[in-house]
Amino acid sequence: MTQQTTTTIIYTKKECSYSDAAMSEMDDEGTIYSKIDIDEVPGAKEELLKLSNGEPITPVILRGKEIIIGYHGLG
Fold it and tell me: Angle at the Cα of 62 (from 58 to 63), degrees rounded to 5?
């Protein structure tokens, strides 16, 4: 039996308390994720805008093919 893992990516920016809360929750769950700071990674802000239908909001979380815009608890 092979174990399939889902890739989780969080688009964030500095001093975003919602992103901090989402990452804290993922840490508590043991979720492995990649963090992309839209202010530091070239092209990341444009990708975030595509994913969020033009809304400049963080965090945007990708879990496999699921897109979560904003943070309201991941539970």
Answer: 140
